[in-house]
Design a protein that fits this description.
The protein is an alpha+beta fold and about 220 residues long. It has five helices and seven strands. Helices cover about 40% and strands about 20% of the residues.
């Protein structure tokens, strides 16, 4: 299920004790939710994951398209056909000298990718411009649309979905509340509340990252 801006803003107005969205206006809250998406993307770039068909350029060296934050998995050739991952290029150089000068193919067999250079990957045999790989990638969440100007003051009118899975709602809410309380940043009590909400959001992201790491480690141990 998806969650909406309105649902986050409703919780915000309750916590802020501003049911009419007078002190903290709906457009402000929308902006703070959008900034929460940036906070989450910065802390956890794989918060939003999608599967894409990534066209390749001719040759062995490939670069990830700008709109993708990182590759999570190379799944298969887009037109069918498995892909095997290489641990390094040294073995390939030793057993297949001159592999990078082989004729280009529309279906690659091997991919090498290192987190040292996460936006670059190498395919073997070299690709032609007709080649494409199905990938699981991380992308930046997109801010949702605002209602028409006449309805902008009404928090319930913000019916667009927040562009993150439901599991991130807590982090979105508390990052947004952090900025809401910082509106009164010259007040010590408000600053303390802001920092408390920021800490809750950061912990939510850290807990999710740790859980994902544990699942990945368990899966590798079973392999």
């Amino acid at each position: 299920m998806a969650f909406t801006y309105a649902s986050v803003m409703r919780q915000m107005t309750t916590i802020l004790q501003d049911a009419g969205a007078v002190r903290w206006t709906a457009p402000e809250m929308k902006e703070w939710v959008d900034l929460a998406l940036v906070d989450i993307y910065t802390a956890k770039p794989n918060a939003k994951v999608t599967v894409v068909q990534h066209p390749l350029v001719a040759g062995p060296r490939q670069t990830l398209r700008d709109e993708y934050a990182m590759v999570l998995a190379f799944l298969r050739n887009s037109t069918g056909g498995a892909i095997q991952m290489l641990d390094n290029l040294e073995t390939l150089d030793r057993w297949h000298p001159g592999w990078d000068s082989l004729p280009g193919v529309a279906k690659v067999q091997y991919v090498y990718h290192s987190q040292v250079a996460p936006r670059i990957f190498t395919v073997m045999p070299p690709a032609t411009s007709a080649a494409s790989i199905e990938m699981e990638v991380a992308v930046a969440p997109t801010p949702g649309a605002s209602p028409a100007a006449g309805a902008a003051a009404d928090p319930t009118a913000y019916t667009a979905n927040v562009d993150l899975p439901d599991a991130y709602k807590t982090a979105v809410l508390h990052f947004a509340l952090y900025r809401a309380f910082m509106k009164d940043g010259d007040n010590q009590a408000a600053t303390a509340q802001a920092q408390a909400h920021q800490a809750i959001a950061a912990k939510a992201i850290a807990d999710m990252t740790a859980a994902e790491g544990a699942i990945t480690a368990a899966a590798r141990a079973r392999a």
